[in-house]
Amino acid sequence: MADSTSSRVWFITGSSTGFGHLLAKELLRRGERVIATARDVSKLEDLTRQYPEKVRAFTLDVTKPAEIESVAPQAIAAFGHVDVLVNNAGYGVGGAIEEVSEDEFEPMFQTNIYGLIRTTKAFLPHLRERRSGHIFNFSSIAGLAGSAGWGFYNTTKFAVEGFSEALAAELKPLGVHVTVIEPGPFRTDFLGRSGKLAHKELPEYAETAGKAREYLKSQAGKQPGDPQKAVEAIIAVAGSPEPPIHLILGKSALTRFRDKLAHFQQEINRWESVTTGADFPDGK
User: Fold this and answer.
1) pTM passes above 0.85
2) % the chain with pLDDT above 90
3) What are the structural domain ranges in the chain?
4) Which of 15, 25, 91, 139 is catalytic?
5) Whole-angstrom distance, CA of residue 138 vs CA of residue 216
6) Does 139 participate in catalysis according to the annotation?
7) Which of 78, 153, 162, 184 is the most exposed place for a label (fewest CB within 10 A)?
């Protein structure tokens, strides 16, 4: 049975696997309408077969600007409007900063940063004109706290954080919400298909970035986060009259961020005199 939110239309990137696919399935189960996109549209056949009236599937590679510009108006026309945009497409590359080549990190930048930005901008005129809507940008706890072995992935997700905060400030007066999702380790395929490792491996980083390599190789399928509960949380936020700008998901992510805040505060206090001493004297 459809609930009171069944009139919403969701546009989701990266819908073939992981959070994107699970979110689409849960929304459709609840009676909502979904525009699901993936680089390989055949991976969406289970959705289109089970919910032919409620889902529309489009081929979309977010690293291709022309595809974004083509799909966005088609998606809006499919059901007459889009209420919720979910920028989910993304992946990670592990390895020390010195180990990861530009050929390895640049495609990730194109997906995680530029693809997200271009997709958002393609829908902004529509959301602005309607004076309503909600944008969910997938980041990660890696967008709030950097760690050895994930430097370039951190870079992409820190960019999503700053972009989302600025976007939220710009869209709030227009009635459009923005929420950035910051999951910890969840039992998706991030450590499997979606996780990549730098080909170069230097022994000097074995005790720092090397730990990230070990984690990626050994922890797939063992992550504490339940993806089903995560998508249910996202849907709940979409139904809130005052949704958060930041949504941390998972106990380990919350603990990690609180630890960072505590250390950050200690550092600020320790160096406060140097910080405040960098201004001209009062009245000058």
Assistant:
1) yes
2) 83
3) 9-271
4) 139
5) 20
6) yes
7) 162
